[in-house]
């Protein structure tokens, strides 16, 4: 019987793609103010940034190096890197329906969160959504000492819940960290593929939004799993 749910944050609780899109709109104008008057040029560079960035998943130094090489040879990478992380939290969005669904799920499940990244940055984003009190436990990889897909961070969260791994679902959007780590640690994985379907040869549950997630959890609860 599933008794607990652990969530990933970026791209699962937060709408990372929308946040990255809005951030790049603002960020590129800080690099090149002329883009305010040249919307097509800005959109061209923005869309290329999103591809380099893999929609918010890649270290921003990589994107800045690409920007410098292709568009802005005088770009100060370190200054722009700091600027990004000073302002990224201002562009955070939660996934549609997540807050309402979490409130209903709390009636039947313990709800926790595991997120990879620097503690200050991750907590600032979580607080920007007003969700810092929605999860227990709440583990950030930097503070914990290891990151997903390391089994230790999953098992520590499960232990904090007072549950067994097979009693806990892990919901995440990144297969190579969230899903692989959950499987290795013995949790029940659900691959969150917002607005798309993932392709895998493994028999892994997939959901594309929070309505579908809630329905799936209700179905397995009804079956007594």
Automatic annotation (TrEMBL):
- A single GO molecular function, which one? metal ion binding
Gene3D superfamilies for the chain: 1.10.150.520, HAD superfamily/HAD-like (3.40.50.1000)
Organism equals: Bulleidia extructa W1219
Q: Does the keyword Transmembrane helix apply?
A: no
Keywords, sorted A to Z = Hydrolase, Magnesium, Metal-binding
Name the cofactor(s) required for activity, per the record. Mg(2+)
Tell me what this protein is called: HAD hydrolase, family IA, variant 1
Q: Which SUPFAM superfamilies match?
A: HAD-like (SSF56784)
- Show which residues constitute the signal peptide: none
The lineage's top-level taxon is Bacteria
Give GO terms for biological process: small molecule metabolic process
């Amino acid at each position: 019987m599933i008794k607990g749910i652990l969530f990933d944050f970026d791209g699962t609780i937060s709408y990372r793609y929308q946040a990255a899109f809005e951030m790049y709109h603002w960020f590129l104008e800080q690099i090149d103010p002329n883009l305010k008057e040249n919307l097509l040029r800005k959109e061209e560079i923005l869309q290329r940034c999103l591809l380099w960035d893999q929609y918010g998943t890649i270290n921003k130094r990589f994107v800045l190096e690409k920007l410098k090489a292709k568009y802005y040879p005088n770009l100060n990478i370190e200054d722009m890197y700091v600027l990004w992380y000073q302002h990224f939290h201002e562009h955070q969005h939660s996934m549609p329906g997540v807050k309402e669904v979490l409130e209903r799920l709390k009636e039947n499940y313990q709800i926790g969160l595991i997120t990879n990244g620097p503690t200050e940055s991750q907590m600032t984003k979580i607080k920007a959504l007003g969700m810092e009190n929605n999860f227990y436990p709440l583990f950030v990889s930097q503070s914990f000492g290891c990151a997903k897909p390391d089994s230790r961070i999953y098992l520590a969260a499960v232990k904090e819940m007072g549950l067994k791994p097979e009693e806990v679902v892990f919901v995440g959007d990144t297969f190579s960290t969230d899903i692989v780590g959950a499987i290795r640690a013995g949790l029940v994985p659900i691959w969150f593929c917002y607005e798309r379907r993932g392709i895998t040869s493994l028999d892994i549950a997939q959901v594309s939004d929070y309505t579908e997630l809630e329905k799936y959890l209700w179905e397995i609860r009804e079956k007594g799993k």
